[in-house]
Amino acid sequence: MAELRAGIIGLGMMGRHHARVLRELDGVELVAVADAFGDPHGVAGSLPLLSSVDQLIDAGIDLAVAAVPTILHEEVALKLAEAGVHTLVEKPIANDSASGKRIADAFEERGLVGAVGHIERFNPALQSLRERLENGDLGDVYQISTRRQGPFPARIADVGVVKDLATHDIDLTAWLAQSRYVTVAANTTHRSGRQHEDMVSAIGHLEGGIGTNHIVNWLSPFKERTTVVLGERGAFIADTVSADLTFVENGTFQTDWDSIANFRGVSEGSSTRFAIAKREPLKMEHEAFRDAVLGISKDVVTMTEGRETLRVAEALLESARSGAVVQL
């Protein structure tokens, strides 16, 4: 079988990692790269450095990765759809949900595979957690809480922390629960003097009645990526930086130490840290995209899902502006 011919447009921080993984991916050959602003990380190697999506298309590619700034996603994605190129667009799918819908519709109408790079779905800890939730290991799920904090990344200039970082948490929460958001409320701040928000604190509810809580910022001097799923039998704690998954079960023994017992709703049980095979999420994402293009599977984040995630992000920003709970 001939290898799929792949191209990348956008050779910044994410583009260089996409290039590395595509060069290692079985069944795929990276044949073209493009960026109108050059190649700061030396991604092109022996390949000619192209300057536009049109030149990338002319190189005769089967699939593409669009890692350009968010504001350019619609222009680039629509040209790739028109040319019949299966495309993985970095998250968020677009600058706004109307643009995201136009992108999703263009790929669906042409029967092309369109995917969005919500890479957390391919984190081994979250994949194991999703499987355990589906198996009923936690019983009823009560709440999903996430914390995503760290210093400001200089690479981000066109969107704030909600569309850049919080979209990870919105997507992984709805995916873990297999349920959509129905209400959200949020507060944002602009502490660093930049155009866009740099911190958000949000709560929400999903269709199934699960509560959500998200703390996301670019203001912390440490990096944290934590997801806690609380339920009937205890809590799962996923650290997606280290891809560790821990389960703390509700205990069966009550303490007779009154000063501690007064602060405990349920008794503390055993804690188990699971052994998980830790493969690189970006490689797993690309394998899923390749297999979807080949018709082997459909395990990608669809553009329709990406657009729904962006719609929730916009609702968070609306709530922050208005001070009201937003219905979705």
If you had to describe this structure to a student in words, what would you say it looks like?
Pfam families: GFO_IDH_MocA, GFO_IDH_MocA_C3. Keywords: NAD. InterPro entries: Gfo/Idh/MocA-like_OxRdtase_N, Gfo/Idh/MocA_Oxidoreductases, GFO_IDH_MocA-like_dom, NAD(P)-bd_dom_sf. The chain is an alpha/beta fold and 328 residues long. The protein folds into 2 domains: 135 residues, NAD(P)-binding Rossmann-like Domain (Rossmann fold, 3-Layer(aba) Sandwich); 176 residues, Dihydrodipicolinate Reductase, domain 2 (2-Layer Sandwich), CATH 3.30.360. Helix content is 32%, strand content 30%. The strands form 2 sheets. A 9-stranded mixed beta sheet has the order 14-13-12-11-7-10-9-8-15. A hairpin with a 4-residue loop joins β9 and β10. α4 packs antiparallel against α9 and α5 packs parallel to α6. The longest helix has 20 residues. The radius of gyration is 21 Å and the shape is globular. The termini are far apart.
Q: Gist?
A:
This protein has 328 residues and is an alpha/beta fold. It has 9 helices and 15 strands.
